[in-house]
Automatic annotation (TrEMBL):
Signal sequence bounds: none
SUPFAM superfamilies (UniProt xref): Barstar-related (SSF52038)
Pfam family, one: Barstar
Region (Disordered): 90-111
Descriptive protein name: Ribonuclease inhibitor
Stated family: Belongs to the barstar family.
Gene3D superfamilies the record matches: Barstar-like
Organism: Chryseobacterium limigenitum
């Protein structure tokens, strides 16, 4: 199964998304940068099986790209051989910083 990874770290809008998508897969020359065109290409022009994975999405991007996510989920339900997943970016835990600050306070108290 072919997997296409789209990293959302540097994606701010749909133009950025389609630019990265075009770098990952060969789209027909007549492809229009819109969800209908994406649906048409996925359901009729790309070889299956295919998995598309979005990585490093932010919560804001989940809202901004809600239509895209919904479209891909609908295609996944209808098209045999197509799967889709997305993952939120990982945040560093603040617990480590808090623990260091606590240790610094203890060191200061011992001086």
């Amino acid at each position: 199964m072919k997997t296409i990874y789209i990293d959302f770290t540097d994606i701010g809008d749909y133009e950025d998304f389609y630019t990265q998508l075009k770098e990952k897969i060969t789209l027909p020359e007549h492809f229009g940068d819109n969800l209908d065109a994406l649906s048409d290409v996925l359901t009729g022009e790309l070889e299956m099986p295919l998995h598309i994975e979005f990585a490093n999405m932010t919560v804001d991007q989940l809202e901004s790209f809600e239509d895209l996510l919904t479209t891909l989920e609908e295609i996944e339900e209808e098209l045999e051989g197509f799967t889709f997943s997305y993952y939120l970016e990982q945040y560093e835990s603040d617990d480590d910083d808090t623990e260091e600050e606590d240790n610094d306070d203890e060191s200061d108290e011992q001086k």
